[in-house]
Amino acid sequence: MSAEPVLVLDGQSQKIVEANPAAQRLFGDRDKLAGLAFAGLVEPESRGALEQLLGSIRAAGRMDDVRIRLTDHDSEMRISAFLLRQGEGQNYLLRLSPVSPVDPHNLLSDSKAKLLKLIESAPDGFVVTGNDGRLLAANAAFLDMTQLGSEEQAHGQTLDRWLGRPGVDLNVLSANLRQHGSVRLYPTFLRDEFGTQTEVEISAVTVMNGGKPCFGFAIRNIGRRTAPEFIPPAATTRAVPRSLEQISELIGRVSLKEIVREATEVIERLSIEAALKITGDNRASAAEMLGLSRQSLYVKLRRYGMMDAEALGVA
User: Fold this and answer.
1) How wide is the angle at C-alpha 77 spanned by C-alphas 75 and 78, nearest 5°?
2) Which of 13, 16, 297, 305 would be a feasible disulfide site paired with 287, CB 3.0-4.6 Å?
3) % of the chain beyond a pLDDT of 70
4) Which of 107, 108, 124, 137 is nearest to 214 (CA)?
């Protein structure tokens, strides 16, 4: 059934035992390939490489492909060999494929080859997708970020599978790439195979491949960079943004209701800080200035993790 020519050789005589239809066509529809010595179908200058290939397979069980020339064929063929055991005997399974001519326009310069190697080894994730968002290639850092065992597990999967908001982030990125050709520092979350989320920034660019657009995404983990900008929460509280500028970073990640709550908390905390500063850390005066009871002020200080910072203040 193979579209490639496949032959089975006798291990002792190296004569052809079986040949698939593709091999029959390769050798001119010879109906009597069975029984012919395969070496007789190979150009004399290639027989040494063939003998070395079969000898290495017999001794070590494997060898890299070699190139040979067949009689009555102008182009080179690449040949792979595998050892087949049948009872106490051994046969060879040969697979032949044409060697594609080298296109000098597709050769990478040394500098470009080094660049690709650096991308593969980069600490930031990098993936290439088709126009539909399905992965064509991924570097080792992306596999580590998503907890995938191999690149094959990522191939054909849509990038949307790992982004924080399925159906939203990839659509936004793709729309901007089609319109502008590039995207810089798009904030979102990356979700690994176990559901753990990591805060990331994504920069992306559009490239043409065979007349069709492909997208390249650079994905950087910024969790450690952004963590210090949040107040360390108490055991029973959550982190709150320190400024209204940080509120804008939440747009697109959470609902408007949550953004309004976050903004209210920022304003409330900043007002408390200002009142304490004006009153010289006198909590009773600060509570009166804010129109709060002392107990309500203590609750809010504890909520925003400010009790330790104000522990030495005048009550």
Assistant:
1) 150
2) 297
3) 80
4) 137
Q: Is the pLDDT score of 99 beyond 50?
A: yes
Confidence of residue 219 (pLDDT cuts 50, 70, 90): very high
275 SS3 class = helix
Contact 83, 58 (CB under 8 A): yes
Does 228 have pLDDT greater than 80?
Answer: no
DSSP code string of 159-210: GGGTBSSTTTHHHHHHHHHHHHSEEEEEEEEEE-TTS-EEEEEEEEEEEEET
User: Residue 247: which pLDDT band, with cuts at 50, 70 and 90?
Assistant: low
Cross-strand partners of 216: 128, 205
d(CA 80, CA 65): 5
Mean pLDDT of 232-248: 50
Domains of the chain, earliest start first = 6-98 (3.30.450.20), 109-225 (3.30.450.20), 231-303 (no CATH)
Q: Hey, what long-range contacts does 57-66 have (CB within 8 A, 24 or more apart)?
A: 57/81, 57/82, 57/83, 57/92, 58/11, 58/83, 58/90
